[in-house]
């Protein structure tokens, strides 16, 4: 296997949430009496494959059983408001037996949990309808714990009813604040309260419709298997079989907007936009936009919070040239409606880009690489490595004094591209080691002189994973570059392969193929050239600018089922010699970072947001308004600070390809390029990296 797969596929439109539910697209036998046997077959196929092919399959013991139990209960009831304490007590009998069930393909825990869940869901559905039929009194001073992942379950139905009354009031107040300008002033408005309450009612009507229909038993079972595999390790992931229409849409050409969806709790937001996509080019869709509603294929606006991710993706996709309306909301702003045309998603823009940065009379090169992509065409000339080579050549022509490789948010990609890219910066030598069950392979950079030998930095964050960590670690271990960024990278030191599950039919006997779904299975681990693994602990930068750059980020160490970090004894390798005073440059940077008010402001604002999110929420209108506006203000301040609002910006321009005759050069004034230069100029983390590179140039030493 020559590929290290990313934890996400950013341009598949939908970010893959580890606990995302399955939709009705999942296949099951048409005969409902065959469902129990089919589910046993699915379980057997999944765990047979894990036991046979996983790099280090987790032992199925009582500890594993307890972890699966905990995860699945949390999946069914993440806010601890559907199950009662008596339900949890009844289900706790399975905490130490799930492992035994899995070994014999038993479904006792699932059957019991689903039966109780269905009963409670029906009861809560009635409770919600009755509660939402009456207006809420926003004058009453009371509080609720809205973030309840660690809260106690309701002791009984009376306590549950009171909890739901408060939660529904909370959601109504939140919608009330988002709906009109008058609400932003915290003024009582009975008509607006009705609209906000109706919106909550529609959301829960969809939620319960999804969870009590006949297909729900299969949806919940497939999620149970997914949860069970995620407790083997966070990157061994089960995917239910899909009907052909969705499968075709996912694996062939499709038409959409070019956005990556992020999922947090029940809400969807625009995590990232494909620069060449219609959403990006419209100028109306922004990163971090909360997606409140999307028009369905009949043109009706439908609230999407809590809707399965596959259905949200299906709503966005459609026929080429057709419009889709979205209701979006930026933090601290009012909701807005935008209309964007669906187009074919072809990623031509999400490739390596470079710029020249000028500061204090010095010129530095900047290369942005969002993913280690490959070129599947016969020429294979347009993969990440060759694109970076072209950008390095242009920056050399510009006579830059140093280069920044920006791998922030780069979730990985092809190992071959990382290894070949070593040619840009280091002589022949090891870039990484890959260990499977039966052998260990060394991956060397090409046996050619380095393309560029000047000062080099690698900028990373907690989203830099897998292949990005291989590159950063190799540059750090071989003393070729300073690594700069968050306290560590993601920490994914494992490699996966995709496998299909099922059995072949026999046309002669009239039996069809049977699909049990597919898996992404962990089959290898990779190691730094020192023999250490990046697994779990990631790559720690030489200079840390911030603990994390995103409040929403999740890292390998956040997953309890993450595999352990280990080491191997490997062959010695040759290190480069820094051309600058390493200790002085690092010490100067650490002193600046400590005093940098922008970094402190981001950290403080993030901490305050976490405290507001985790605390009790007052449910009277004046207090709720105060909290709502405070959170919006904090989010906007963090955003402005990260973009260097009010601060001096860097001078940024595109490099000129001097291999092309000047008469043939055309200025690139595309919105994608303008936005790239604008963001680069205002990036506070890049600004500090440029200061570090200035120090590297000013504190040269002889080799």
UniProtKB/TrEMBL annotation:
GO BP of this protein: proteolysis; signal transduction
A Pfam family that the UniProt record links to this protein: Peptidase_S41
SUPFAM superfamilies membership: ClpP/crotonase (SSF52096), PDZ domain-like (SSF50156)
GO CC, one annotated term: outer membrane-bounded periplasmic space
InterPro entries: ClpP/crotonase-like_dom_sf, PDZ, PDZ_sf, Peptidase_S41A, Tail-specific_protease, Tail_Prtase_C, TSP_N
Protein name: PDZ domain-containing protein
Family named by the database record: Belongs to the peptidase S41A family.
GO MF term (any one): serine-type peptidase activity
Signal peptide annotation: 1-28
Domain of life: Bacteria
Keywords, alphabetical: Hydrolase, Protease, Serine protease, Signal
Positions of the PDZ domain: 243-317
């Amino acid at each position: 296997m020559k590929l290290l797969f990313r934890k996400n596929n950013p341009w598949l439109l939908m970010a893959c949430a580890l606990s995302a539910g399955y939709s009705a697209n999942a296949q099951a036998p048409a005969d409902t009496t065959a469902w129990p046997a089919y589910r046993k077959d699915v379980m057997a196929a999944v765990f047979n494959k894990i036991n046979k092919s996983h790099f280090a399959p987790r032992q199925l013991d009582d500890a594993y059983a307890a972890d699966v139990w905990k995860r699945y209960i949390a999946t069914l009831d993440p806010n601890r408001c559907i199950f009662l304490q008596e339900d949890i007590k009844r289900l706790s009998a399975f905490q130490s037996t799930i492992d035994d069930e899995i070994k014999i393909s038993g479904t006792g825990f699932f059957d019991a949990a689903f039966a109780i869940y269905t009963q409670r869901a029906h009861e809560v559905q009635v409770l919600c309808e009755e509660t939402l039929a009456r207006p809420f009194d926003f004058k009453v001073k009371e509080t609720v714990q809205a973030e309840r992942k660690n809260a106690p379950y309701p002791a009984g139905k009376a306590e549950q009813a009171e909890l739901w009354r408060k939660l529904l009031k909370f959601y109504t107040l939140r919608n009330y604040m988002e709906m009109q300008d008058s609400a932003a002033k915290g003024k009582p408005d009975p008509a607006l309260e009705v609209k906000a309450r109706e919106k909550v009612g529609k959301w829960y009507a969809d939620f319960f419709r999804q969870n009590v229909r006949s297909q729900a038993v299969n949806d919940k079972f497939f999620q149970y298997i997914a949860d069970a595999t995620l407790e083997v390790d966070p990157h061994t992931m089960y995917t239910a079989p899909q009907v052909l229409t969705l499968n075709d849409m996912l694996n062939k050409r499709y038409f959409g907007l070019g956005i990556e969806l992020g999922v947090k709790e029940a809400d969807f937001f625009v995590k990232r936009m494909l620069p060449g996509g219609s959403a990006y080019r419209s100028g109306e869709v922004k990163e971090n936009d909360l997606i409140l509603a999307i028009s369905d294929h009949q043109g009706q606006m439908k609230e999407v919070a809590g809707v399965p991710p596959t259905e949200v993706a299906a709503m966005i996709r459609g026929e080429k040239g057709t419009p889709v309306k979205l209701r979006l909301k930026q933090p601290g702003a009012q909701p807005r409606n935008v209309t964007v045309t669906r187009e074919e998603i072809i990623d031509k823009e999400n490739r390596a880009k470079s710029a020249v940065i000028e500061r204090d009379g010095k010129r530095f090169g900047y290369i942005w690489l969002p993913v280690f992509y490959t070129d599947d065409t016969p020429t294979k000339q347009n993969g990440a490595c060759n694109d970076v080579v072209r950008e390095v050549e242009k920056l050399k022509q510009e006579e830059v004094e140093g280069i920044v490789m920006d791998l922030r948010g780069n979730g990985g990609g092809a190992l071959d591209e990382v290894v070949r890219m070593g040619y840009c910066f280091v002589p022949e030598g090891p870039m990484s080691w890959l260990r499977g069950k039966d052998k260990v392979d060394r991956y060397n950079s090409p046996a050619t002189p380095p393309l560029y030998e000047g000062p080099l930095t690698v900028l990373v964050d907690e989203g830099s994973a897998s292949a990005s960590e291989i590159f950063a670690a190799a540059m750090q271990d071989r003393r070729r570059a300073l690594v700069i960024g968050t306290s560590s990278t993601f920490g994914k030191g494992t490699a996966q392969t995709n496998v299909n599950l099922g059995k072949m039919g026999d046309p002669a006997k009239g039996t069809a193929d049977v699909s049990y779904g597919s898996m992404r299975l962990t089959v290898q681990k990779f190691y730094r050239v020192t023999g250490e693994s990046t697994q779990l602990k990631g790559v720690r930068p030489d200079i840390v600018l911030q603990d994390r750059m995103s409040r929403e980020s999740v890292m390998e160490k956040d997953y309890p089922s993450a595999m352990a970090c280990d080491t191997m004894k490997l062959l010695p390798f040759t290190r480069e010699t820094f051309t600058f005073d390493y200790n002085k440059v690092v010490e100067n940077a650490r002193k600046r970072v400590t005093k940098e008010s922008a970094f402190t402001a981001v950290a403080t604002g993030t901490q305050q947001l976490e405290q507001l999110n985790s605390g009790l929420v007052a449910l009277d209108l004046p207090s709720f308004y105060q909290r709502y506006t405070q959170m919006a203000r904090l989010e906007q301040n963090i955003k402005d600070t990260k973009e260097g609002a009010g601060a001096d910006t860097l001078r940024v321009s595109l490099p000129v390809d001097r291999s092309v005759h000047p008469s043939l050069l055309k200025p690139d004034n595309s919105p994608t390029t303008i936005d790239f230069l604008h963001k680069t100029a205002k990036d506070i983390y890049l600004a500090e990296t440029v200061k570090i590179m200035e120090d590297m140039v000013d504190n040269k030493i002889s080799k």
